[in-house]
Structure formats: structure tokens, C-alpha cells
Amino acid sequence: MEAFLLVIVIVLILIGFSRFSDVKQLVQHQNEELGRLRADLSQIRSLFETGDQPVSLTKHTILDERGAVIEVTEEAAPPIIIHPEPESIPEPVIIEPPVFNPEGVLPPPIPQVSEEPAAPVLPTLPPVPAEPQLSFFQRFLRDNPDLEKFIGENLINKIGIGILVLGIGYFVKYAIDQNWINEIGRVLIGILAGGALIGVAHRLRNSFGAFSSVLVGGGLAVLYFTIAIAFQDYHIFSQTTAFVIMVVITGFSILLAITYNRVELAVVSLVGGFATPFMVSTGEGNYVVLLTYILILDVGMLVLAYFKKWNLVHIVAYGFTVLLYGAWLSDVVIDHKLPAPGAFVFATLFYVVFMAMNLINNLKENTRFSALEISLLLSSTAFFFAAGMVILENSDHKALQGLFTVALAVINFGLATFLYRREAIDRNLIYLLIGLVITFVSLAIPIQLEGNFITMFWALEAVLLLWLSQKSGLKLISTASILVLGLMFVSLGMDWAALYGADANPPMPIILNKAFVTSIVSVVGLVATLRLLNTQTAPFQFWIGQLEVHNYRSFVRFMLILTLYLAGIFELDYQTANRIGFGPNQVILMGCYNLAFATGLLFWAGRAGQRGLMWITTGLGLVGMIAYLATFSPATMELLNDYFLRSEPSLIGFPVHYFSVVFALLILWFIDRNKARLEPLPPILLRLWPWFMGYVIVYISTSELFAHVIYFSFAGSKTGGLAGQPAMQRFDELLIQINKVGLPILWGVCAFVFMWVGLNRKNRQLRILSLSLFGLTIAKLFLYDIQGISEGGKIAAFISLGVLLLVISFMYQKIRKLILIDDTHAPQEPVS
Predict the structure, then answer these.
(1) Which of 51, 448, 473, 481 is most buried, judged by most C-beta within 10 A?
(2) Do residues 766 and 758 lie in contact, with contact meaning Cβ atoms separated by under 8 Å?
(3) What is the pLDDT of residue 686?
(4) What residues contact residue 664 under an 8 Å CB cut-off, 6+ apart?
(5) What is the spatial distance between Cα 358 and Cα 569, in angstroms, rounded to a whole number?
């Protein structure tokens, strides 16, 4: 039965070969016929191009001497075309009617019309529209206008070889299920089938190159799986023997790829080569054998890259190497079984091979580096840096991370120096290597200080990519810079959550910690990005559209301000919470930072002069003022209460609150100064603004009076909480005295200042504010303060208010004329 089936298979193969030879002869005959037809067509075309008239033969009948009719054939003369001259048409005589002109004024002369014909006016051609961007399906139809040819020559053969491999597999499986073939016979059938496919492909390599390469790929796949089954299932070969056979198959396939000059063969060979270790794996986990084999395979691809510029082969080899090495490194790191020296050596060798693979063909041919090649070079450096940092982080050589970073900078600098001496080398590559040197040198110090190197690397890498794109004009690099900057923001947020949210003991040092250093490097990267964007005008191109530079610049500026604010607030919150605890001290310090940041934004907006920016910063300033009135300022009295009467250990917030007062007053001043640039404003805002300013000034004065009286009264006499009951009573009494005696005097002084400023600046609203504050002070004095106040307090309050009121009256009398003029020109409000 087995022999019968084998004979059938051989007969079918012979029939196929004979039929295929007949088809080949038929195709060759048709090619000869098409060649003759093309020659005839070209001869006819040449006759028309030289202008020769074809000779026409004319047959006519004549009578001979005997009267018989005979036919005579003569060459007919070419027809003579006579163009008749057009008859001259007399021009019509136009008789104009007489013009009535009683004054004798001569009419204007009639312009003479030239008899010569005017020059023809050429029509203006419409502008040629830009070529629309085609979709993938439209590009496919453009590149393959004949779908029948594409399916017949390109698609059918690939589907056919797949079906053929499946058919052979099903036949072998059926034979195995029926026990027709033993294990050695099964392996021999697989080897013969794979070899037969490769042999047929070799026979057709000159006539049908694409089809033969597909057959070779199928034959190689059959050989790979046959050897894998012989080792894994039948145990015919040992692991070493199976491994060597597959290596030989891989080398043979690479040789065929070079011989046939087919990139698809190289890809098939490469995929089979990377699959070989898994086909012969026994689960022992010998990483030296695995990584050595991958390295040998990559070296083979390096040799191939020297002869052929096949980027697809480079990408496949690079992707498989990164995937396999990264998976192995992650596994051993998680299991705490990392062989650090071996892992670092193999990572270095892979980096050298792929760096050479990026350079070798371009240096040989002196060609320009494409965006893909530059991206591969950049990513290989990034992966090697990440792998080295992970290895050093999880070994006993963590202190060498900074040295490793400097070493990478030196290597790239040496390579840039070597390439710079070659005049034909692409300048973009030189710029890239110099940028990498700058990046690694910039990262060395933060990494040595245990900085979070991934975020910092992305921050500096975004700047490098943007600078490189502007120098080289590569759109892909500029797009990559935007994506890397987005990754930097995500990574920075994760770093803040992990580092500031952790309960470290002892806590991280102030400023010089990896969280804050990472934030500063990110801010530096954003500042550098903004400086580069100021010199760029071309938009960023994406596959879905384009991004205008001014929009991206506004986004980066906003993210810079947000990053700078969050970096400071997170650092301050972490340090205060770990050193002075949650309490009024922390509130005062956080409030001072917020007010300082709002002041800086208002100053920057005033210098920039942009109306939209002023509106935003003014709104933030008002929010800061409201927060100060509601939270930050009351925290000062709470701090004094807790420090003198309870168990608050520190009074650091009290001197800091002076800065908060200064920043609050500066915010008021900046908003008032920038108010004119925000016009036109609603009239109600203009009327309410002086009242708001007056309220803030009176509030600050009042809170400072309470704080300083308490501070100087208790300074040097801190008590111990409930044990100091007399101190608590004294504290309450001081508050009552300040309220009944100090406030009337202070508010009277404030009202006097408002009146003085209102008179000097001719501001009616300030004068009304002054009078209102005087009225409130007097009402408070007589309705509340006079009850239970001491005699000295009554005397001081009444005398002070009396003197102030007399001075105000004198000022009104002294400059009465000024007041009347001011009131005359002031707009009159309607009386209800």
C-alpha cells in the first residue's frame, strides 16, 4: 500500500512537470508572437513619423486594339486639396445722423480703428490642484490596476503554497494515523517534500522569480517543522543534532536569499532561525546557549546587511532580538536570578551588532540615512540604556549607573568624531549622535543621585528629537518628539504618585531628592522645547492631519507652567507633612507658595501684554486672594493659638506669613494696574473693585493687629496647654481688648487713608468708602465697644476717632473747591 501511494505521488509529480513544460512552451510561443506584433506596430509608427505618404493602387479598365476589355493597375496620385479663397465682402457704410449743435462745438474725434488683427489672447489656465492624499485601498488600486494580474501572479501562488503545505501535512497525518509509515519514514517524507519544493523552486528561479521564492519559503517551513517533530515527538535526534541541523537550514536559506536576491526568503529564513531554539527547547533554561545562538543569527544578518539594503530584514531581526532578550531579562529579574555580568555582556554585544547593522550599508554606499534607520539607531541606544540600568539596578553594581551613562556618551562621541571626518556621511546622523552625547551627559549626574532616569531621559529625548527634526527636516522625527513628550508627562505623573505618596523612613532630603530633580529636568526639557518652537514655522504633520506650531507652543507653555507649579507644591507638601506635620504651619507655607506663584503669573502676563493671558492670570489672582482671606490668613491666628496654648512644636509659619501679606498686596496692585488693559469691563465691576480693595486692606490690617498683639504679649512665655489656664483667660481677654479698643483706632486710620487718597486722586468712590468705614466704626464704638471697655480704652478710642474726624473735616474745608469740581464732572447716578 505504501509503495502504491508513493508511485501515485511520483506519477502526479511527473504529470505536473510535463504539463508545466507544455504550458511553458505555449507561453514562450505567445511571447514570440507578441514580439512580432510589436515589431510591425513600431514599423508602421515610424512611417507615420517620417511623413511618407502610403502608395495607393488604382484599378481601371481600357480597350485594346481588338476591342477587348483589360484591367490596368496604376499608382494613384495623392489627392490635391484646393482651398478656395474667400470672396471679398464689401464693408457696410454706416451713415450717422446729423447732430444738433447750436453752439458750434465740435464733436470729439472718432478714434481710428487699426485694420491689423489684434494679437490673440491666450486663455488663463486654472491652477493645478494639489494631489489628494490616497487611502491604502486607493494606493493599492493605483499600484495594481490589473487586479486579475495581481491575483494570478502574486496572490494565488502564496495561497497555493500554503494549501500545498497543509495538504502534505494532512497526508502525512493520515498515513501516520493508519500506521502506514513509521517514525523514520515520516521524517524522511517531510525532508523529501521540503527538498522537492526547494528543487522545483530552483528549477524555476530564472523564469518565475516570485513564484520560486514562495516555493522555497514553503520548503524551508516543511524542513523546520520536520526536524522539530523528529526531535520533540520521535526523539530521533538529540538536542544538539537537531539544533545543528536547523542552524544549517537557516544558513542555507540565507544563502538562497542572497542567490535569488529575494527579501521574502531572508525574512522566512530569519523567522525560522528565531523559532529554532523554541522548537528544540527542553525547558532547561540555558541562557548562554540561547543568547549565543541569537547573537550568531544577528551577526549573519549583519553580513547580509553589508551586501543587501533590506530594511525589512533589519526590522524583523531587531524586533525578535528585543522581544526575546527583554522577555528573558524580565523573567530573571522577577525571579531574582539575574546573572548580571552575562546579561550585561550580551546586551552590549547586541547593541554593537545592531549599531553596525544601522551603519554598515550606508557607509559602504555613501547613501543618506532615512527616518526609519535613524529611528532604529535611536531606539537601539534607548533599549541598551534601559537594559543596562535595569541590570545595574538589580545587582551589586548600582553605583555604576552614572559611569555607564557617561560611557554611552563617550561611545557616541567617538562614533560622531569618526563619522564627521568622512565628507560623504549624512549630516543628520552626526546631529543625532551629538544629541545623544548631550542627553547622556545631562543624565549622568541625576542618575548618580538616584534620579528617576526614565522620565528624565524622555524629557531630554523630546528636545533632542525636535532639534534633530528642525536640522534634518524629517517629519517622522518631529512627530516622535511630540509622542515622547507625551510619554514624559505620563511618566512624570507616575513618579510623583510613587515617590511623594510613599512613606519613606527617613524621608527624602529637601530639594536634592530624585522626585524633585526629575521635576526640574522635566521643566528644563520643556523650556528647551519652547525655545526650539520659537524658531519653527512649519506645522507638524500627522497621518490624520497637521498640528500648527502656535497651538503646540501654547500647549507646551501651559504644561510648563503646570509642571512648575505642581513640582513645587508636591515637594513643599511632602517636606512639610514629614517634618512639621499637618497643621497651620503647613497651611501658611502652602498659602505663601500659591500667592507667590500667582504674583509671578501676573507679572509675566503684564510683561507679555496679551489680553487673553491677562484674563486668565487675573482670574487666578482673584482665586488666590479669596483663598488667602478664607484660609491662609486665619491660619496665622490658629498657629499662635496652638503654639502658645497647645502642643504645636514650631512657629515657623509666623515669619513666613509676612511674605504672604506682601504677595497678597502685590496681587492687588498688579490687578489694579492691568485693569485698564482688560477694558471694556462691565460697569458694576468697576464700581465694586475699589470696595474689594478697601475690604482686603482693612482685613489684612485687622488680622495683623490681632496677630502681633498676641505674639508680642506671649513671646517668651509659652505654656503647656490645659495646665496654663490663666494664659488661656489672658488670651481671650486680649482678643476682646483688641476688638473693642484696637479696631476702632485701626479702622479710623484706614478710613483716614482712604479719604486722603480719594481727595488727592479725585476718586469719589474712595471717599464714599472712607465715610462708610467711619460710619461703621462709630456705630460699632457706640453699640458694642463701649460696653465693658476700660476707662483708658474709652479715652483712647474716643480721642483717636475725634481727632481723625476733625482732620477729615479740615481736609474737606481746605480743598472744598477741588471736591466741588470733582463732583461736578462725576457722572450722576439715577435717583430711584
Answers:
(1) 481
(2) yes
(3) 82
(4) 595, 624, 625, 628, 696, 700
(5) 45
What pLDDT digit, counting tens, does each position of 277-333 carry? 666 665 666 678 778 878 877 887 777 777 777 777 778 888 888 888 988 888 888
What does each C-alpha distance from 539 to 132, 374, 474, 525, 535 come to in angstroms? 18, 21, 12, 20, 12
Residue range 759-802, pLDDT digits in tens:
777 777 887 888 788 778 777 777 676 666 666 665 666 676 66
Amino acid residing at 496: W
Q: What is the DSSP letter of 740?
A: I
- Residue 118 is given by DSSP the state P
Average pLDDT, the chain: 74
Cis amide prior to 507 (ω within 30 degrees): no
For the chain, the residue count is 832
Q: Which residue's entry shows cell 523559532?
A: 275
Residue with cell 532547561: 284
Place of cell 528565531: 274
Q: How far apart are CA 133 and CA 496, in angstroms?
A: 43
Confirm if 507 and 579 have CB atoms less than 8 A apart: yes
Q: What is the mean pLDDT of residues 264-268?
A: 71
Say how far apart CA 585 and CA 629 lie, in whole Å: 16
Question: What are the residue boundaries of the structural domains of the chain, listed by start?
Answer: 576-787
Contact (CB, 8 A) for 216 and 194? no
The pLDDT of residue 563 is above 90: yes
Whole-angstrom CA distances from 57 to 43, 53, 744 are 21, 13, 133
E-strand stretches of 383-466: none
Write the CA distances from 502 to 495, 499, 507, 518, 689, integer angstroms.
Answer: 11, 5, 9, 16, 45
Percent of the chain whose predicted confidence (pLDDT) is above 90: 13
**Coil, helix or strand at residue 690:** helix
Q: How far is CA 203 from CA 21, 163, 200, 216, in A?
A: 12, 21, 5, 11
H-helix or E-strand containing 484? helix 475-500
Close Cβ partners of 394 (under 8 Å, ≥ 6 residues apart): 333, 336, 338, 340
For residue 472, the tally of other CB atoms under 10 A from its CB is 21
Percentage with pLDDT > 70 across the chain? 66
Residue 321 makes CB contacts below 8 A (sequence gap 6+) with 294, 298, 350, 354
pLDDT tens-digit series, residues 587-625:
999 999 999 999 999 998 888 878 888 888 989 999 999
Dihedral angle at the C-alpha atoms of 420, 426, 432, 435, nearest 10 degrees?
40
697: Cβ contacts below 8 Å, ≥ 6 apart: 668, 750
At residue 153, the 3 state secondary structure works out as: helix
Least trusted range by pLDDT, from 2-6, 91-95, 530-534:
2-6
For residue 445, the model assigns a pLDDT of 63
Q: Is residue 74 helix, strand or coil?
A: strand
First-to-final CA distance of the chain: 119
Is residue 341 reached through a cis peptide bond, with omega within 30 degrees of 0 on the bond before it?
no
Give the Cα separation of 700 and 703 in Å (integer): 5
Is the pTM higher than 0.85? Answer: no
Cell numbers for 406: 557617561
Rg (CA), the chain: 47
